[in-house]
TrEMBL record:
Organism of derivation: Streptomyces echinoruber
InterPro entries associated with the record: 5-COMe_2-OHmuconate_Isoase (IPR004220), Tautomerase/MIF_sf (IPR014347)
Keywords (A to Z) from UniProt: Isomerase
Protein's name according to its UniProt entry: Isomerase
Pfam families associated with the record: CHMI
Keyword Membrane applies: no
GO molecular function: 5-carboxymethyl-2-hydroxymuconate delta-isomerase activity
CDD domains xref list: CHMI
Superkingdom to which the source organism belongs: Bacteria
């Protein structure tokens, strides 16, 4: 926890600084939602095909989902959502495409569990 998933248009790959975005997002999760840095995990999923409107060219989509353990206020979630959108603006070059960015912060289901296996040397 937090579990972060970033779905983004294939056309954004060269214009999206994913490592920089993850660093900033993880830092903001620590500051805003009291997450532990080592607990932040982000999965990037490059989408081969995305469509906007009736299929206009020159558009790209990014959607970020942040799953947190229950207990954060709606105000905290809204502040975090705005921070996600701000971080996207900082890490996606938009001079080549019209960017459609969205974000959602939600509570993880009570059934959520995780498992970690240490590196064996």
């Amino acid at each position: 926890m937090p579990q972060i998933t970033v779905d983004y248009s294939d056309t954004l790959a060269p214009a999206f600084d994913r490592a920089g975005f993850a660093r900033v997002l993880h830092t903001r999760l620590v500051e805003i939602a009291a997450a532990r840095p080592e607990a932040c995990k982000t999965l990037f999923r490059r989408c081969e095909f995305t469509a906007v409107g009736l299929g206009e060219e020159g558009h790209a989509v990014v959607h970020v989902t942040v799953g947190l353990l229950a207990g954060r206020t709606d105000e905290t979630k809204a502040k975090l959502t705005e921070a996600v959108l701000e971080a996207l603006r900082e890490h996606v070059r938009t001079d080549l495409v019209a960017l459609h960015a969205s974000a959602e912060v939600r509570d993880l289901d009570p059934s959520y569990r995780k498992s970690e296996t240490p590196v064996r040397r």
